[in-house]
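The freezer alarm interrupted the setup, so I double-checked each line after restarting. Inputs confirmed:
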Amino acid sequence: RKEVEQDPGPFNVPEGATVAFNCTYSNSASQSFFWYRQDCRKEPKLLMSVYSSGNEDGRFTAQLNRASQYISLLIRDSKLSDSATYLCAVNINTGKLIFGQGTTLQVKP
Amino acid sequence: DTGVSQNPRHKITKRGQNVTFRCDPISEHNRLYWYRQTLGQGPEFLTYFQNEAQLEKSRLLSDRFSAERPKGSFSTLEIQRTEQGDSAMYLCASSSPRGQEADTQYFGPGTRLTVL
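Predicted 3D structure, all chains:
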């Protein structure tokens, strides 16, 4: 079993839709959690850190469920420019990040 | 530009040649990481430094790979006797252990290696 798992998709949604991605992790000692956005052939860019209380940044909401060991990302009112791959990453306090495979989102007009 | 920088951005080499990549982290960050990413996968951890000390190396880092950070600033990643399976994007990231964004890693643009 992979340490961090994501549904690779692709998720094809119309503009204005709400879409949610989940990411599960296997190590209960995981300390910090992140969502990164990656455009084709570019580097990952930090989208949000994920806090225990959940956090929101504009149209983006991230949640952490420690009991079930998953994190989620909700995108409301999706835009064409949201089309990208969304990577979740987990740090078990050893310094390194462990990434999921990434979930591809395609927003259609 | 105060972000992470990497050079070269692209490298094409023949099998068996040696290649070296450079990473310059964000100036106040004392932690530096190397990852490798292949198509359709998330980045995979290779190694990381705190200042000049190499604190962890992945099993992915075979004896053909070596990384250095001699003065605790920039880092180099060398691959000796390259193989076609080494073709990937090599990503560098840096972080600070302090402050509100402690341990949040920021990535450079990557070096795309193609081994022919």
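Quick read of the result. Chain B is about 0% helix and 50% strand.
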